[in-house]
Amino acid sequence: MASDISVDIRPDFNSFDHFLSMRYIATDRPWLKLYGIRVQPVPPFRSLSCKPDPALIHHCLPDELLLEIFTRMNPYTLGRAACVCRKWKYTARNPTLWRAACLKTWQRTGMEANYMMVRSLYDSSWRRMWLQRPRIRIDGLYVSRNTYIHTGVTEWQFKKTVNVVCYYRYLRLFPSGKFLYKISPDKVKDAVKCMHFRASKADSVFKGDYILSEDGQIEMALLYPGHRYTLVRMCLRLRGTTVGANNRLDVLKILTTGVNATELKNWTGSILELVEGWEEDETHDPDVPAVSHSRGLSPFVFVPFEEADTSVLNLPVEKMDYYVPG
Using CA atoms, how far apart are residues 75 and 324, in angstroms rounded to an integer? Predict the structure, then answer.
């Protein structure tokens, strides 16, 4: 790549800092400053094998430019790129890439707390922290598909009909601690279009607050507006089908309770802070009793935005397996 550039290299040097301080006769290379004291540089691919690399893209794309491209990828795209070849795999393991992803994902925790956590719990590995620490995925929707049996009415000599009713719960979570919630019979490809903060009132998309604990439990609260305010509290558990997937939300409980309109009007904090310390059977409106729901508790499945149109959850009821509660 730079065979025509003369470099003053001494035969023996003990540290990488000395390598950074060497003077180049040609243009300066500012990307070398990306490597910190505790961050090991990505070794050139040629040093891993004595045979020359026959791939044309590796000759046209230098290591420095490849790393610069990887810094502009999200972590999920970066994981797919690591499966392309060995050189991309080693480049994708650069700690600077995963450090930026972790600090952005857990920005509410604070930079100092994240640095202390990665040293004490994850052996100073940002990639291990990304894979093992519970985190919410924000690049799609969590979808819960629920069904129940509705008995029809007997007419004339026809037998009583039985209908299978299918509806969905949609969750979209944001790093700021806010989430959007929607219950609808619409398929995923149709519901994803209105899951944003600019949704109209007719879309019936409600906004709430959530908090994620380090053990993977999520506490959520939202307010249904209307003639009488109804407060919905949910407790979920985050898990993944593979390491680092975080693509499932198990529903532990769903509670609905009443809230006093005067108390809500004078409250300036989040809804989650309002219900902190409430009992499960506690209600602040005698006209709206507290109810613990035992139906519609199917786990949430994560669907990325790019797969919303092709997800199997768009299939009709007769082409999918469904669970009939006993």
Answer: 38
Q: Which of 264, 249, 257 is nearest to 280 (CA)?
A: 257
Residue 262 has φ and ψ, to the nearest 5°, of -65, -40
Contact 141, 188 (CB under 8 A): yes
Query: Amino acid identity, residue 222?
Result: L
The alpha-carbon radius of gyration of the chain (Å, integer) is 27
Cβ atoms within 10 Å, residue 253: 13
CA-CA distance, 163 to 149, in Å (whole number)? 6
Instruction: Return the structure tokens found at 267.
Output: 């409250």
Q: What are the tens digits of pLDDT across the range 211-225?
A: 998 888 999 999 887
3-state secondary structure of 14: coil
- Determine the Cα–Cα distance for residues 216 and 246; give it in Å rounded to an integer: 10
Task: Report pLDDT for 149.
Answer: 82
The pTM (predicted TM-score) of the whole model is: 0.74
Closest alpha carbon to 307 in 120, 143, 118, 94:
143
User: Can you tell me the distance from the alpha carbon of 152 to that of 160, in angstroms, rounded to the nearest whole number?
Assistant: 6
Return the SS3 of 120: helix
Q: How many residues does the chain have?
A: 326
Contacting residues for 43 by C-beta, under 8 A, at least 6 apart: 90
Q: Where are the beta strands (DSSP E) in the chain?
A: 140-151, 162-173, 178-184, 206-212, 217-224, 230-239, 248-258, 291-293, 300-304
Residues of the chain with pLDDT under 70: 1-59, 153-160, 321-326
DSSP 130-197: HHHS-----SEEEEEEEEEEEE----TTSPPPEEEEEEEEEEEE-TTSEEEEEEESS-HHHHGGG-ST
Q: Which two tokens stand for residue 23?
A: 């003077």
